[in-house]
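User: I want to check something. If I give you two sequences, will you return the structure for each one separately, not as a complex?

Assistant: Yes, each is folded on its own. Here is the first sequence with its structure:
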Amino acid sequence: FCAVLGALLVPLAYQCIWLLTHSIPASIFSAALILFDTGTLTLSRHILLDPILMFFIMTSTYSCLKFLTYSHKPFTLLWWVWLTNTGISLACALGVKFVGLFVILLVGYTTISDLWRLLGNHSISLVALSKHVTARVIGLILVPVLAYCVLFAVHLKVLDHSGNGDGFFSSAFQSQLIGNRLYNVSMPQYIAFGSEITLKQRRTGGAYLHSHFHLYPEEHPPKQQQVTTYSHKDDNNRWKIKPADREIGASDPLVYVQSGDLVRLEHVLTRRNLHSHKELAPLSKHHFQVSCYGQNGTGDANDIWIVDVEGASRGDKIQTVRSKIRFVHYHVRCLLHSHDKKLPKWGWEQLEVTCQPNLRDPTSMWSVEEVIDARLPNVSFEVYSPTFLEKLVESHAVMTQGNSGLKPKEGEVTSRPWQWPIDYRGQIFSGQDHRIYMLGNPIIFWSLLVIKVLFLVLWLAYSVGHKRKIPLNKNLQIYCERSFRVCWWLLLAWFLHYAPFWSMSRVLYFHHYFPAFLYSAMFGGVMLDFLVTLTCVCVPGHLAVKVFHFCFLLIAAGILWSFYLFHPLAYGMSGSLAAVEGSMMHNVKWLDSWDI
């Protein structure tokens, strides 16, 4: 499937450039630069999201350009077909990856430019213009939103089983997942002293309050038991809630926990109490440390917490799932808090838990997810089931947080955006005996850099000549203006798909560049045709055809030769590494940064 979609990038690129230039050589060059790029080939040969994303980016671009060709036939059937297809393709691109947002910006810019052109056409009435605006709102806003929601409705319907990532979602969301401990379950609606509970932080991707037998290291005294948050279900997430001033006996009367109560939280497996003191937290130096302390449920006065339920009056019962709870430390006067900071190896890379001195901090909210107490009556968890819109919003919030918080694994090779256009370093796809290394075709990548510089020089020279009114053949002037206009649009498309990565703090990889590379390759194809045409203009007329054929064959041979040199990177290599003399790839390790 991915290979087919990757293969379709080539004819889509050809068609896009044909619609922009009506030049067969430019279309062939553009398609060839994508076809013979080893990086694009490597991505297309693997089961990844990238070829699917690039396919829908290209269908969005093609559909948008095709729609513009029907500008002289507005509101006809084909006009509506290509407008709607553009909207659906945009929804699919965004549905694959958030990078699809960049092609939405490109289509949005193109649409606004087209409407601006229509506004300047005095033969079009304001009523007709309003119809054009309405049609684009329908085709490029309403249709994509509807298609996107349908995609997620199908997604949520099909992927309805429990998995390792359940803990990133709210309790209500988890209750809809088959196999989850909260699915089709009944549990107490309220909690009582003596109940065993799990606490989940009420924020997007919030994790479970967690502890284990491991202690804080000596550099974070005192060496008490670690408290963290952990995104996965675990028996170490269970806590017993007790009154602050006594233990609960089997014969004691049932007493519900209420807002304003003083409580202790005893970790069920280790029998130590949740504890805080005025020692600094390991990572957040303006917060206080949270630990577990004591023996067999007995600790000291620093184990006492005040239960504060948002929006509740003193004496209101705490509800499972629904109540938003702050735990205020009785002596230190700080809030039980967690965030996305990961502890080092000694903390198993789980999330730091602290005591936050800001008592108004809105992120220090918790909810009770599970209650284990045979004394309490149960209610069905169905009462907490979220609507489709709530699930849609929550799933996007979790995805956004997870995406922005991605960090490299130990020893993993990452890259930064400045490295991508210069092909500074590739990406290892397989480190076995049959090695695959994703690297853009260096001849193509470096040629595109040179072509971009040449374009700026030629455009600047043309602009100066035009400003100085230097005479130029009329047909050549029209050709130059059209070519420059197309090149600027493709450069904008490349920039929109490339520049945003410079502002991202998350971990990045070389494969993130390839949607932008598609536009860079199409830009290169148009410019190669432009340069060949200029060369032919500069030679005597009887030689022009021969020069054109020579240049065309020279460029084609160069692209084919470069692919021949580097194709083992995509299809697989064996034997010695390229750094070893005698290796089959030794002569093509042109940069030390290439891990071939």
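And separately, the second sequence with its own structure:
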Amino acid sequence: MTDALIEGNHLTKVYGTATGPLVALADVSFAIEEGEFISLVGPSGCGKSTLLSILGGLEERSEGDVALDGEDLDRPRTDIGMMFQTSVLFPWRTVRQNVRLPGIVLGLDAKEQAQKCEELLDLVGLNGFGDRYPSELSGGMRQRVALARLLAHGPRVLLMDEPFGALDEFTRETMNLELLRIWEKTGKTVVFVTHNIGESVFLSDRVFVMTPRPGRLAGTIDVDLPRPRSAQMMRDPRYSELVFEIRGMLGIDH
């Protein structure tokens, strides 16, 4: 065992289908340190989202072990939060009511909930929007609400499944910068799924590159770019080198 916060050993996931077993993940092993920002990249259907669901306790693995601080991840936990491509906000609840929902479900003190909610709205840049409804917000703003709600119950680990994939390019880049600002301020451990290689390099400390199904780890790329990151960093030759290195691992270096 290592002193990693999250450790997976020989993870395999097999689904039963009408035509026989389908191996989604095969013998995946990794270690993630506390406070790291990790991205998972790979072709569609390679098991990225499946791996994230296993880490979140939403899917059972078929073989192997996975643990958080040495404790088996076999069920959903309050110290792990998940965010998806769609914001999954309740349309009949205001921004403030959506953000406070985890605290209500967990039975947290109402006064503490209210204070925490205002702090989070400030953190994600939504001061003054607490009484708005999701239908009154842009896609980027709805994802800010989802991020605030994700942080509301204080998880140590954020699992993010293409959270900005449905946004336009300008909004996506803005949200990436916002996410990095929030990550640097909170020190959370982040595992981020994306199809965008440039995004993975821009955000991450390390990038886990996955093979086509059955998903295996083809390799890990250490992103040795300075922090804090800025949009200007994408002009750095090293940024381009890392992007092309990952493209080569994925077989798209032409």
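Because they were folded independently, the notes below concern the second chain alone. The chain is about 35% helix and 25% strand. The mean pLDDT is 93.
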